[in-house]
Specification:
The structure holds 2 protein chains of 2 kinds. By secondary structure, chain A is mostly helical. Chain A is built from 9 helices and no strands. Classes of the chains: A mainly alpha, B mainly alpha.
Chain lengths: 195, 102
């Protein structure tokens, strides 16, 4: 928690804009953990995560003068972070043609347990986490972003619109398409496994 | 075995929610960013305004050139303008000129 005597974000930003560049470190120290958590939702390799976070902070530094202070700095920064992550997904779009025939034994076991008894399956297992990663990797960048923000992070359509810069109607359309895309992926699991 | 895709969807989302990503920051990450900043142009409070003014200056210049071209083009054909004025004057004043011809 920030101490009462600690300068506010707005004060630090004003100092950086006056040329006191080393004070930018204070902003990084305060907010970078959230940026890391966001980047790790979209990139798996730690080197990619660090690249994304570095890009977010460099953009933040270069655009610092455009921060008007109408909303908290953290909101402004998270908008930058989400948009940078989306750019990353579009640039590094992996082959989404992978099949589920190469599921590992623990992943197959978890899937069978879910199908047999969804309530009893373990949500903390490593196999479950990996399977979620596989499904998300198969989605298009827009679908992955929407599923993550809307369903996993439980954000509202309005919040997503502000974070992504998309209109509310575009978010709704993309959410509809993203759910359909995810269902298609899950149907492929079913087909690969049981047909 | 029958499979409910909606249940599987819900379960996978529940797994993702139950396992939020780590917010761990690598050691001395701030220093790494800070080391890169001097090589970048310093953030300028007026940079946005300057950029916007430059853009608007370009647009204004383009409009001025277009208007200039538009206004000078008819001047290249003075006969047409003079003839038009003459015809207009004759048409309007025809009823007041000379004796009625009926």
């Amino acid at each position: 928690m920030r101490m009462a005597t600690e300068p506010s974000d707005a004060e630090v930003i004003a100092a950086v804009l006056r040329g006191d560049i080393p004070r930018f470190e204070e902003l990084i120290a305060r907010h970078t953990s959230r940026v890391f958590a966001t980047a790790r939702r979209y990139a798996r390799r730690e080197s990619e995560v660090e690249d994304i976070v570095q890009e977010v902070w460099i953009k933040a530094y270069q655009r610092l003068a455009t921060f008007r202070g109408e909303a908290p700095f953290e909101h402004w920064l998270m908008r930058l972070a989400v948009r940078t992550c989306y750019d990353f997904l579009r640039e590094h779009q992996r082959s989404r043609e992978a099949t589920f025939t190469d599921l590992t034994t623990p992943e197959n076991d978890w899937l069978e347990r879910v199908m047999a008894s969804p309530e009893d399956s373990d949500e903390e297992s490593d196999a479950a986490r990996k399977l979620v990663g596989r499904v998300l990797d198969m989605l298009s960048p827009a679908a992955r972003l929407i599923i993550t923000l809307l369903e996993i992070e439980d954000r509202s359509v309005k919040e997503i619109s502000q974070l992504t810069g998309w209109s509310i109607s575009l978010v709704k359309v993309r959410a509809f398409r993203a759910r359909a895309e995810m269902k298609k992926c899950l149907r492929r699991i079913a087909q690969d496994k049981y047909l | 075995m029958s499979m409910n895709l909606d249940d599987l969807h819900k379960k996978l989302i529940a797994v993702a929610r139950a396992n939020p990503p780590s917010d761990h920051v690598p050691y001395a990450f701030e220093k790494r960013i800070l080391a890169r900043l001097p090589s970048l142009p310093a953030p300028d409070e007026w940079a946005g305004w300057v950029r916007a003014l430059w853009c608007s200056a370009g647009v204004c210049a383009a409009i001025a050139i277009m208007l200039g071209v538009w206004t000078t083009l008819p001047a290249n054909e003075p006969e047409l303008g003079a003839s038009f004025c003459h015809d207009l004057e004759q048409t309007i004043l025809v009823s007041t000129d000379g004796e009625p011809n009926w």
